[in-house]
Amino acid sequence: MQIATIGRWGVSARVWPWQIFRRRFSRAATPPYLKAGLFNRFELFWRGRANDNIALVELLQENGTIKSDRIAHAMKQLDRGLFAPQGEIAYVDIPLPIGYNATISAPHMHAACLELLENHLEPGMHALDVGSGTGYLTAAFALMVGEQGYAVGVEHIPELVQQSIENVKRSKAAPLLESGHLSLHVADGRQGWPEQAPYDAIHVGAAASSVPQALVDQLKTGGRLVIPVGDIYQDLLVIDKQPDGSLQSHSATSVRYVPLTSRDAQLNY
Length: 269
Prior knowledge:
The chain has about 270 residues and is of the alpha/beta class. The protein contains 10 helices and 11 strands. The strands form 3 sheets. It has a 7-stranded mixed beta sheet. The chain has a two-stranded antiparallel ribbon with strand order 1-2. Strands 3-4 form a two-stranded antiparallel ribbon. The two termini are about 40 Å apart. The model is unreliable at about 1-50 (pLDDT under 50).
């Protein structure tokens, strides 16, 4: 859809809406790397080029969010449209509501967490996804650890777990679900899932006020836990368990996630 505008010299022209936004805001006080990513996404959305999963992943590669070919391959295999609300908006780089006061994270956050965990998602490894929601990231873990590994998702909303199973059944990760190397469970994620512990990789998709001890206990020596921590102000913590059992952590970035709570508290949030 093009629209008519009146230029500086009174000349009418037909332009794309993204061109107006670029002209109006390109001189704003925005860091160059953020500006490039923002406008690339906005242009692709308006031009209709980011209307499928492959285009979305390529966009994340172009703006530098995805650096690993393994992660790009996994995300290209796993169609986000099967795990998010239907329509073109599934392929826009934004978080989306999935009901029950929960969301599916924005694609760039999925990619960032996969990048942080890549070396702990090698074939044969064990991965835990806490707050698995619609099952997207659990399925991505499963594709990366393969048939010799295990990917477990835990979610305390039964309806979301059932929906996530149906989502996975339609995806490229379906064979791993059928073989039991990918599983999704109704459980309090703060308690982890001891049956497949210890884990090489643990991801938490909601913000905890402090790091749950059960997750630390279920982390393998040499393993990595990625978890948002904080209430109003949150940091995406990267926690590595050392050979002596001690923990080293650093903040990858500031984030804003829904809180990691009980089922009742979430439904009344």
